[in-house]
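Folding follows sequence. Below is one example:
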Amino acid sequence: MGRYANAIARCEDNNLKIILKKLDSYSDYSLFCPATGVEYNNFRNLFDSIPNQVRAWYKLFNGGYLFDTMFLSTKYFEDHYRVRLGSFRIYNSSMARKFAELPDDKAVFSVASFGDFYCFNTDGSPTITQFSVTEHQCVAQWSNFSVWLNQEVNAALDLVDEEILQPFSIYYQKESL
């Protein structure tokens, strides 16, 4: 087992556990910051309703990077890994929402390398949507977080196998999260 062994052992969702095992084999291409109990509670307090799988993921991790996709965090900087993180508070602020014309029922949890937002619905449904920041509308939808995450991982692994995507060049200790 690699860097995500502890997260795999703690993961409460079987679909996410399968994806984490796949990611563990390619852990040099992703970096997720372990979540503390305080950070998880801070995340839960940001939104009224969070889909179960998104909640399960953020119980394990407080932001990070899946290849070239940024997962938002409750903090701006991860000291241990010395990496800047995107903040829930910034991407979901009233100013950012107004600028992007983001619907009220969407909460940004991740940002694609090309700028689009990945959102969960704040109405309690498990649906994940891709919100285009240039078209100001939802352009794709997945039935739940694990379906979206699995597609993101598989697409990135294809790029790794084709030697298009390179490992992260940031500091981290090879330890199990």
